[in-house]
Amino acid sequence: MSPDASRTFRVVSFHAHPDDEALLTAGTLARATAEGHRVTIVVATNGEAGLADTPGSAHSPGAGLGATRLAELRASAAALGCARVVALGYPDSGMRNENRGFASVPVDEAAARLAEVLAEERADVLTVYDRNGGYGHPDHVQVHRVGHRAAELAGTAVVLEATVDRTALVRALSAIRWTRLAPAAFAPERMRSAYSDRAEITHRVDVRGQLSRKRASMRAHATQATGGTGSRTLAFFLRLPGPLYRRVFGTEWFIERGRPPATPAVDDIFASLR
């Protein structure tokens, strides 16, 4: 993703909820903005069904939490140097789509709204999630479907599916399992069918130079570091010491459908446009 003095590119990064951008794409987005490219973050929902604090608190699930999480998203986007944040405002589905939210919206309806943003931005690249929706949240799976359809409608040239190298993830989680510090949701056995196989990955992006901005993006989502009875994912990641954080988050992975996987995978999200 080396600078190209002859052209800047426009990236739209589509996510299900505020804080999703911090985990899978923040380093890549920060690297893009540092190199002079324009980045817009779009979220399908405000994340109002997320777990945060306890019932009845200022940040308990509901409209108030959604507004707070959008403010956190704007702070995260500012830390990454993003030019614009767009919230589509669909209801947060919850982990089992108990709210009949974004995951239940007709794909073409939501895709048309996202396509409007792609057209406004004249987007060269759209990021979505892989077919599994990462760990399988119904809103994440819907981001995959809606994003690909929106790119068709808008004629966006490149769609990159943000993911994680499943092989590396399971190996890392197995190594730290004995500490009992990792959130239960990240038990190795639960991850064996999540995210993507290494053989599918086409882009392996080095973001080690942007880790301070990625940490700032994570820290912006304060409501998602507390609440519930177990260890929260963001809180766990933010407690990692610097060298371990660098090892865990120094790479971000993407799949570009139609591009043959290479060994090693390319380190340039604009490779198909150059």
UniProtKB/TrEMBL annotation:
Entry keywords, A to Z: Zinc
Signal peptide, first to last residue: none
PANTHER family documented for this protein: N-ACETYLGLUCOSAMINYL-PHOSPHATIDYLINOSITOL DE-N-ACETYLASE (PTHR12993:SF11), N-ACETYLGLUCOSAMINYL-PHOSPHATIDYLINOSITOL DE-N-ACETYLASE-RELATED (PTHR12993)
Listed name of the protein: PIG-L family deacetylase
Species assigned in the record: Jatrophihabitans lederbergiae
